[in-house]
Amino acid sequence: MADRGASALSLPDDWPAHPDPILALNRMGSFDWDLDTGLMQMDAQAHEVFDVRPDEYDDRPETLSKRVPPGEARRLDTAVSQALKDGSENYGAYFRIRRRDGALRWTHTQGYIRRDETGRPRRIIGIVRDATQELGESDARRDQAAQDEARREQTSVVELTTAALAHARTVQDVIDVLKDTHGLVHLGATSLVMGLVEAGRIRLVAEGPADSFVPGTRVTRIDEPYPMSEAVRTLGPCFIESPQEFAERYPLLWPHITDLDITSAAYLPLIVQARPIGVMGLLYSDRYGFTSEERNILVALGSSIAQSLQRAMFFEQETDLAQGLQQAMLPRTIPSVPGADVAVRYRAATIGGSVGRDIGGDWYDLIPLPGGRVGAVIGDVQGHDTHAAAVMGQLRIVLRAYAAEGHPPATVMARASVFLHELDTDRSATCLYAEADLSTGVLQMVRAGHIDPLVRHTDGSCRRVTVPGGLPLGLSAEFGRLEYPVGTIELDPGETLLLCTDGLVEQPGADLDDGMRTLSALVDTGPDDVRDLADRLIEVAAERGGDDDVALLLLRRRGPDSPQSGRRLQQHVAPGDPAALTGARHMIRTAVAAWGAEDRADEIELVADELITNALMHTEGAAVVTLRAFTGSQRRLRVEVEDSSSALPRRREAGESGVSGRGLLLVELLTDVWGVEARGGGKAVWCEFVVPGHD
User: pTM of the full predicted structure?
Assistant: First the structure.
């Protein structure tokens, strides 16, 4: 243990060979070694260091051999000889001496070489001292440093792994973090296996290296002779320190994994609240055995991983529950609609990574209605939790029921609002309900605090449709009876109606109008097919993120495969205006002739005149007469008379003159089909005639 060049004490060049009081005070002995004579004089303190009495030492270094073991003497001689040969001015060395009682003590010597003018060494003067305590303290410091380093390593590994697991939300995320290259480096392993405890069995979820699956171990019992089972059964870690030990302890498993070059393994039970939820196995191919520090690290890691695994299992359970509830609340299937292509989409938003928050109150629905009509619904209940989903499910059902009963859109929305208020919940909801007659393309829409719809035209351009709106559903008590005005538009063949919730529109830092313009631009450049367009819009919403879920409904009125409304005429008839009434009759007569419906001209004119007369007689406003011709597999002519009264026509008994009261009877007898539609603040009475012939 040489330390040539080290200096325990700085000595002057003329340091004498006689004892120095300073050295004595520091329990250091001195010596003066004459290299020409070979004699080495030592002072009393040096005698004490070597544990020799003055009468036992004859000034010859060889005499000290009984105190310096041979191996130590050779090391010391080598250090001195090397210093003499290479021109050094000093040397230093640690060596052991054996005292009278047989105990070995560490000694340190420092020699200063004096040379003549030719460089020949002539004399060595130096010191010796007992270094046992010094080296003991040094060893203790090294041991303490090693322990501190082990603790730092343990803390670092646990912190790195825990930090990596902090973002793991699912069980597979946990496995991926641990199997990641950096994760395995932190763990010091080459591969990993993991199982979950389920109903008294262990289900394998990570099977280690590629092509290493052992048949029959996908699901194992806890009482089977496998290391994972033992760790779960005993609730303690299972360390395997050599291939031989692996083969002896687990003879059923070892033959299947001998080709994996496993030299040792550690199986750790993953315990939470004194209950095993899983087990993790770390396989090594470059080490034998585990130190106490390594075992402590692995046990600490097992505890950290168990917490992450339990959090992931809870997340998956609550996610499954939330998704199941959401799916149960939304329509299972969307009915096919003759004359239309429909696409619906729903995307749940996860808020801040919180478990159970990826569920909300957004919904869509498509409701078949009498007369070939269809109702399209989009809505959003306030909140993002299971309560919002439950309220949404009830609201969807009652709104569907009110619509199926045949109520006009405004009544459907008003009744739904009263229902939500009487549900005794603090949640409100926005909603938009559109009732479509696909044969004519007429859409009647009511809006309860919801965002406006969009319409995509056949040329691909998209526009926002402004629909008069009322307050959100559920506010009946605060504002009394709610009124929902009805807006009417016409959807031409090939045009698409887009209904969505605000999660598709709202963006952080932008107002609603900006979001609507952005959405319109996306629709402008989107695919023609409604399903592809719906997928594209949801993809954009997913890329953008956000803390709100999204519901989307697209309804495209078909073109070539459905009757075409190629021609339309319209006439405004004011009350007390005979000229306007005459003009309407002339328009009907001319159109019937021009459209080749002469065979039914009398019936059409008589029914139209009856509807116009009834509108003028029983309302105080004007009437709007519209004629439409539909071509296709069956040619039809449709007459609509719209007025400002919401009172529905009803059949009455004929009067004494035998004329009054026969209006609806004539309509029923002479038309092929007829009906009444709510239109804004009024209604429209319509009827259709099948017209023979070709286009």
Answer: 0.52
